[in-house]
Write a structure and sequence with these properties.
Elements: E1 6-15, E2 18-27, E3 30-36, E4 39-46, H1 51-61, E5 71-78, E6 83-89, H2 91-102, H3 118-121, E7 135-136, H4 137-148, H5 152-157, E8 161-167, E9 171-178, H6 181-195, E10 203-206, H7 212-221, E11 225-228, H8 234-243, E12 246-252, E13 255-260, E14 265-266, E15 271-273
Parallel strand pairs: 3-6, 7-14, 10-11, 11-12, 13-15
Antiparallel strand pairs: 1-2, 3-4, 5-6, 8-9, 8-10, 12-13
């Protein structure tokens, strides 16, 4: 994939009452199609980088595959206006995928790309296992701070999201960026799966608000703790509570709020249980 991720553009800005011309780097955004066994399942607007991770992560977090081994082969086809990621599933995974598609009711405009029914959008989410993970207040502040150093594209453009995987004692061991917050998390899921990193052994930290899809995808990765710099939605909180996930949001410096399952957080003076 040779399409540039960053693209310089001309700009004219008004500063201190003076109009000046210049150049700014902005992130690229292209349609990325996911095709399984010859059928397009979803088209996402995304940053054209880490596409193998994106494809594997999307397949896992959407319940199409359980691991990279379920994907027999993958081809990334670059078109003039976008990218088509063509995947062939192994027989067992393909049979499950076809059965899943037959049970979908059809497009209803529910607002989630690739989701073909409201029931599918609100599909059951697997419970997450504790795996002995406990964070203290310093871990939470450190995870958010370290993620910043793993955002080179955002440092130049100030226009993309990131998702990182934090392991106590090791810091951020993997991170991905994208113009879409869901895409960044899918890319992270893909790189964790492809590198054999156990999602139960750490916490996911994201730069965005927490909608229900972010909780669903985190649960699919198997991670019990989700940290976010912005606020959650009510449905995200109900879903996190139902699956046993610890959700910490509004992480700003040393301050944060624990919304669900505070037992995994050794909360000091910096924390507030919402």
């Amino acid at each position: 994939m040779t399409r540039p991720v960053r693209h310089p553009v001309s700009q004219i800005a008004l500063r201190n009452g003076v109009i000046a011309s210049g150049r700014r780097l902005v992130p690229e955004e292209v349609p990325v199609a996911f095709s399984f066994d010859g059928t397009t399942h979803a088209v996402m607007m995304a940053s054209p980088a880490d596409l193998e991770d994106f494809a594997v992560g999307f397949a896992i977090t959407e319940g199409i595959a359980t691991s990279p081994d379920d994907i027999e082969k993958m081809a990334i086809v670059d078109h003039d206006e976008g990218v088509d990621i063509q995947m062939t599933l192994k027989d067992k995974a393909n049979a499950a995928f076809e059965a899943r598609r037959r049970h979908m009711a059809g497009p209803v405009g529910c607002g989630l790309c690739g989701i073909e029914s409201i029931e599918e959008a609100l599909r059951p989410v697997p419970e997450v296992k504790n795996a002995g993970i406990v964070l203290d207040a310093d871990d939470i502040a450190r995870a958010a701070r370290l993620l910043t150093s793993h955002q080179p594209l955002n440092a130049e453009t100030h226009a993309v999201h990131a998702a990182g995987f934090y392991v106590p004692g090791n810091g951020i061991v993997a991170a991905r960026e994208d113009v879409g917050r869901h895409n960044a998390l899918d890319k992270l899921a893909g790189t964790l799966a492809r590198k054999g990193i156990d999602g139960r052994k750490g916490a996911i930290v994201i730069t965005s608000r927490v909608s229900v899809e972010m909780v669903q995808k985190t649960a699919a990765i198997g991670t019990a703790i989700l940290l976010a710099v912005s606020a959650p939605t009510a449905l995200a909180l109900r879903t996190a509570e139902a699956v046993g996930m610890t959700l910490v949001a509004l992480v700003r410096g040393d301050d944060f709020e624990i919304f669900t399952r505070p037992d995994r957080i050794r909360a000091g003076a910096a924390a507030h249980v919402a």
